[in-house]
Every structure is written in structure tokens, then in C-alpha cells.
Amino acid sequence: MLELIDITKATPSGIHVQSASMRLEKGSLNILLGPTLSGKTSLMRLMAGLDRPTSGDIRVDGKSVLGVRVQKRDVAMVYQQFINYPSLTVYENIASPLRVAGVPRAEIETRVRQAAGLLKLEPYLQRTPLNLSGGQQQRTALARAFVKRASLVLLDEPLANLDYKLREELRAELPRVFAEAGAILVYATTEPSEALLLGGKTATLHEGAVTQFGPTIEVYQRPADLRTAEIFSDPPLNIIRLRKDGTNFVLDGGISIPVPRASLALPDGDYIIGFRPHHLYLEPPGDGAVALKAKVAITEVTGSESFVHVDFADARWVALVHGVRIVKPDETVTVYLVPERFFIFDMSGALASGPAVKQAA
Amino acid sequence: MARITLDGIAHSYLPKPQSEADFALKRMDHVWQDGGAYALLGPSGCGKTTLLNIMSGLITPTRGRILFGAEDVTDLPTEQRNIAQVFQFPVIYDTMTVRDNLAFPLRNRRVPEADIKRRVDELIGMLNLQGKADRKARALTADEKQKISLGRGLVRSDVNAILLDEPLTVIDPHLKWELRSQLKHLHKRLGFTMIYVTHDQTEALTLADRVVVMYEGEVVQIGTPTELFETPRHTFVGYFIGSPGMNVIPCAVEGDRARLSPELSIPLGRHYATLSGKTELGIRPEFVRLGEAGDLPVNIRAVEDIGRHKIVRGQVAGRDFNAVLRDTDSVPAIPRASFDPARINIYADARLIEPEAA
């Protein structure tokens, strides 16, 4: 088990990691989700031992590793850029950490073949990396990380430089490949959909701080605060500021929306309401929906889905609807909100009340 | 602005191409309409960048001609083609202010200062950069710098076309939404011809009126997002567009039914002539229904809850398949699948086959 205990990393250029605490279990998949410069790479460098925290402790199986040099740590890391030895064959690239460790030749052969099999590199073992596609180059880097059988594997946006479809393919394979090895896997990404597809646990990051850490789907369904909800929403979270006045949320000079039953006990006052784009509807979704008039800014159609961007009061919202739905800019449309789907944040951004989470059958 | 005509264009990087296989870009004829928004979509190595470079003048094609309006520009260098380009990484002057960066392409062309000011102010407004107009570009974030690159591409009203090469690849997901809708809005307002290269289907489909899908140096389909989604003309388009892509399942076509195995056959709703070659049916995961009743027994391997919908992965007739369910749907204990007959496409040797007229 890897424990980060209240670690902070500060340099003259700023604070990169702020009081982060996490416990990463053996055999687990852990995602670091956040935009560029939110601290994902800084956190990984601390985990790897490439950097030393300014304060706090890092422990492996209960023992501090702050004094242990990176070469002595049992870590493998893969970066966004494809990093391989250009003059070595794919086989030798994969074998290189084993040669350094003095593993017997026969065992190297077995382990390289196994890694190459898992990452579908068998046909390319005698080529050099520059004669491979980007996807194959990154598979080579991943195989080299895998073959080490490190107890901690750090993947820093490993699929970011690959084609969309290749990403889909590798994303489906990666957790399986590393889970079988029993390592602690840490995976950094900027994309909410990637975190959801990978599953496992997710830590959301904002300006170097971990805003929430828990099972991925739970963090998505029940974000602890507005930041987390925003980081974990693609398309972006729809937001509006409303005042709770008894049994209604009101907007001055405008609307009145019934407060969901579960949230009636909240004190009156200002709240920030967030709801996801697939919970903003263009057709009445059933009982309890509230109709509002909004002006269409732009429509984007992907064939399977349409994203209708609308302006309401001074907010810009996105409605994600199934199928093809083309609405002309500047047209006024009726949109439907479902209060039961609201995330209700207090003015400090903390979740005051959220939608009931359905338990899986 | 001008219409751009590709007349028998083909390109090989070899000095003496011998066969079809030597061409990185196979023969294509196409007209880009004035004011259209096009995307070139395909995996790396498909020839989309080669095609873009032919239009920008970085590459002279091995064969064919390229016309801007009526003028043959095949041998003209980039600077004489009067086009604007935006690249993956921002190309701006760090030491200049935002305003001067935007004005630069106009000052270069000796546009009167009063006109420059009007045009630059207008763009600053459209790009939501009001508060930053007089800041040095160095101090801006990556997405703001890329906004300025876009602005520099759009500032001249006299360009023939704007060519964009993966301009949003390095932008964070949240900001992509903003930049994408701004670009789309600007295109609608200013009416420039836009050709946009990307490997990201969401970008291609949402930005373009028509998407050109390329595969192994060839254009396999040109269509609206809806056409590419509903009737892919090649199994590659079915696979490449959509996430997950279309299910492609080998079958024998028997008139108005498709046989998936000796025991399993399903209705097609339409009648097909006898087909030769490798025959397959294509069905989008969105059009697979899972219920207690249905034509096909299935094995479910995994159900992935990705928030706005669920992806069900499993096997049907011994083949992997995916189904997409809405977030409110549930998977029955012993599920069976059915394919919406109106949504099934039939392919022979990877090409779409039209049904016979009723």
C-alpha cells in the first residue's frame, strides 16, 4: 500500500501540490483527474520519488520512503510523449529494465514475450521504434513499464498523443494488463469520460489540491463540492445561482422552481445549482419537470447525440439530447429542468444536497 | 473567399510511383464550396495532412490540379495562395500585445489603421478577450494563446480559405467546448471557407457541415454527421465514427433475412439481391435493444456506467458486440438482443449495399 500523508510541494514558482492525502491499495486502479497544471504530474513525480515533498510523508507498506533514492524504488512510469530507445529494437526496448536488473537471459525471454503478447507487439519485436506507428511506440513504452513488474506503475496521460480510436482500444486493454500484475496503478487524465470508462477510484485535482478521492462512479454521482462537479463533467456542468425561499428556488424577476423534497430542510438563502447536460431536456421528461424559455446560441450534432447550447438569464447551458436535433441560433425554445437532478451547493461551494443515487441492482 | 476545386489530385512521396500502393493520397476529385465548413477526419497516416498540405501549397501534388475559383494555383507557393492557417500549437508573438498580434497580418498587408482597429476590436469581442487586449501574449494561458492563433487566422476578410490542422488537440476538455462553439459561431458570422483536419470525431462532427472520412489514402465517404452515423458507406466509417463504433457482424444475406449462424437469423425489413464476397451486417450500439424478449441470445461481459449512458459489452453469435443504453435503462437478468431492422446496414467486402426497391 502507498500512503501520501498531507504532502505539499512548493517551489519558488508556486505551490504544485497542496496537503494531499491518499491511500492507494495494492492491485488498485487510481485516476488523477484534472485540467492541465492542476498538479497531476507533480503528484506522480512525488509518488515516484523523482521529487521530494516540502512537507508531509510518503509511506510504502507503512514505512517512509522519503529517504529512498528513485533507483531503489519499485516504480515504472510512462509519459504522454512516446519515450523509447531509438537505436534499440522493440524487443531490446522492452528487455532493457530487465538487463539492467541482471535478470537471467531465459527469464528475460519469457517476460518480454509475455509483455509483447499482452500489448500486441509480437509482429514488431525486431523493428526499431521509429518504424512504428504512434500507437505501437506507446505500446512499447507500456510493455517496458509492464515487464519490470513494478509494484507502483504511473501512467501520465499515456493516451493523449494517440488517435481517438487507438485510445479507445488501449483504454480497454490497459486496466486489465496492469490489474493482472497486482500493481498499484495510477493514471492521470484531463478527460472525465476517460475516468468513467476506466472505472477504479478517482481523485479530482484543482490547483494542486485533491478535492475528492473515492470510487470513480461515486465521485461522479455525488461530488462533494462545485469544483469536483465541474472537473468531473463533460460537457461542462450547467450552473445557475438561485435563492431558496421556503419551498421554491427563485430568480429575481423570473422563475420559481420547487425545491426537491429531500432538500426542503435547507435554510433559506443563496445557492449554486448545478445539473448535468443530459439532465437538461428539450422534451418534457416526465412528472416534476420545470419548463423555462431559453435562447439557442448554437447546435452541435454528432449523429448519435446533439449538443444544444442555450442562454438563460446570464447563464450558458448545454443540453445533451439523443439523436439529431437541429435548432437555429437565436430561436427561443422551451427547456425542461428536473429539480430532483440538482446538485445544490452552498455559497462556499460545498454540496448541501444532491440527487438520490440509485443503487445498482 | 473562393470555391476550391481538386481536379484529379493524387500524391506519392516516392519520386517514381509505380502502383496504386505507392500513393499516400489516392486520386480524388472534390469541390469545396465557398463558405462551407469541412472536416478531414481519419487515423494518423490516412493522408489527411497530405491533402491539407496540398491545399496550403506546402506540397505540389504528383498528379492533378488545384483551383481557387477559376485560377489554377497548383504551382503557387503558400504565400501567393491567400489562405490563413492555424496549427496544433499556438503561433503568436509572445512579446506583442494581444491586439498587436491580431493586427499583425493586416499591418503586413498595409491595411489602413482605422480599418485594422475596427476589425481587431470586433474579433476581440467575438473571442471574449476584452479584458486582455493590451496584455502581452506571453502572460496568457495555452487556450488563450490558441484563441489568438484562431483570431489571427480569421482577422483578414480577404482570404480564400482558412485551414486548421488539429487546433484543439492540446486544449483541455472544458475549454474545447468553449473554443469549438466560438469557432462555429465565427464561421456562421463571417462565412469563411473552413477546412479542419482532426482525428477526433466529436470535433469533426460538431464543427463541420460535411465531414470527409479518409482511410489508407482514400476518401471513403463525404457526408453530413447524420449520414455518417446512420448510413456509413464503408465498414471503416462505421467503426471510426461513434464511440463505441458500429458493430460489424459476419452474416449470410438471404433475401430479407440475415443469418448469423446455422440457428440464428434475423429480419432485415428490406430485401437484398444475392451477394458475393464477404458479407456483414452493421448495427450501431445505439440501435441494439436488450430485453427479456428478442431474436438473439447474448452473453454480457461487462456493463460500463459512464454517466450519461451505459455501455454493455458482450457476445452475440460468438462475436463481440456493444450496446448503448440510456442511463435510466437496466439490463434484464437473462437478456436477449434485437436489432432495429430499419437501422441495419448490409456490407459486401466492406462497402454498403443498397437494398432492392420494394
Q: What would you say this structure looks like, in words?
A:
- Chain A is an alpha+beta fold.
- Chain A is built from eight helices and 21 strands.
- Chain A has helices at residues 40-48, 90-100, 105-118, 134-147, 164-180, 192-198, 216-221, 226-231, and strands spanning 2-11, 14-24, 29-33, 55-60, 63-64, 75-78, 152-156, 184-189, 201-206, 209-215, 238-245, 248-250, 256-258, 269-275, 280-281, 290-301, 305-312, 315-322, 332-337, 343-345, 351-353.
- In chain A, the strands form four sheets. Chain A has a six-stranded mixed beta sheet with strand order 6-7-8-3-9-10, sandwiched between helices.
- In chain A, a hairpin with a 3-residue loop joins β16 and β17 (305-312).
- In chain A, α2 (90-100) runs parallel beside α4 (134-147) and α3 packs across α4 (134-147).
- In chain A, 44% of the residues are buried.
- The longest helix of chain B has 18 residues, at 173-190.
Describe the structure concisely:
The complex is a heterodimer of chains A (361) and B (358). Chain A is of the alpha+beta class and 361 residues long.
C-alpha end-to-end distance of chain A? 31 Å
Q: What is the number of beta strands of chain A? A: 21
Strand content of chain B: 25-35%
Q: What is the H/E order of chain A?
A: EEEHEEEHHHEHEHEEHHEEEEEEEEEEE
Q: What best-fitting shape of chain B do the alpha-carbon axes yield?
A: globular
Specify the biggest β-sheet of chain B.
6 strands, mixed
Strand arrangement within the widest β-sheet of chain B reads: 6-7-8-3-9-10
Rg over C-alpha atoms of chain A, rounded to the nearest angstrom: 24 Å
Structural class per helix/strand content of chain B?
A: alpha+beta
Classify the helix fraction of chain A into a percent range: 10-25%
State the distance separating the first and last CA atoms of chain B: 45 Å
**Spatial arrangement of strands, main beta sheet of chain A:** 6-7-8-3-9-10
